[in-house]
Amino acid sequence: xxxxxxxxxxxxxxxxxxxxxxxxxxxxxxxxxxxxxxxxxxxxxxxxxxxxxxxxxxxxxxxxxxxxxxxxxxxxxxxxxxxxxxxxxxxxxxxxxxxxxxxxxxxxxxxxxxxxxxxxxxxxxxxxxxxxxxxxxxxxxxxxxxxxxxxxxxxxxxxxxxxxxxxxxxx
Length: 171
Prior knowledge:
Layout: E1 16-17, E2 26-27, H1 30-46, H2 69-95, E3 118-119, E4 128-129, H3 132-170
């Protein structure tokens, strides 16, 4: 997004409700929800083993490998990101007086397999994260940074040319 231009979503009062089974805590900040849900996952991993059964996600019932801490974090953060998208969508429906979404709540909570960290594909960038929201924000800022870097190099180059030309004409 262009710097200095406000998003149409800025100023919206959103609420984010934890979708973990038997939990209905609501936050007005997506980061609070993100770390609240992550705590559910951590508590799940700390529970004693139930034989050969893998623990399951309290939101989508997916089996979780408790030895893959990064995978559990990615899974948790992806749920938080989906929750944020649903909160924005719900708010947009409400302010426009549109009908509610009829998608079933189970299928909209399914998380894709995420075997590795989200990795930036920009040249010379080694950024990796388990948080899809942080990843999207990071990647979306590359063009802005690239433009400002090129802009600075353009003026630096022209400034050096001006100094060089001035020094030649003075002598």
